Amino acid sequence: MITKKKYSLTWIMALLVIFIWSSAACGQSPDFKENIYDVGKLKPTDSELKVKVGDLAPDFTLPAVRGGEVSLRHYRGKKNVVLSFVPAAWTPVCSDQWPGYNIAKEFFDQSEAILLGITVDNIPTLYAWTNQMCMGGGKLWFPVLSDFYPHGAVAEKYGILRSDGVSERALFVIDKKGIIRYIDVHDINERPRLEVLVNELQKLEN
Amino acid sequence: MNELYQAIEGRKDLKGKMKLIGIGTGNSDFEVDFFRKKYEVPFPLFSDEDYEVHKAIGEVRTPYFIGVRLTGDGKAEVFYSKLGGFSNTNKFLDLMVKSSGL
Question: Could you confirm whether A134 is annotated as catalytic?
Answer without folding.
Answer: no
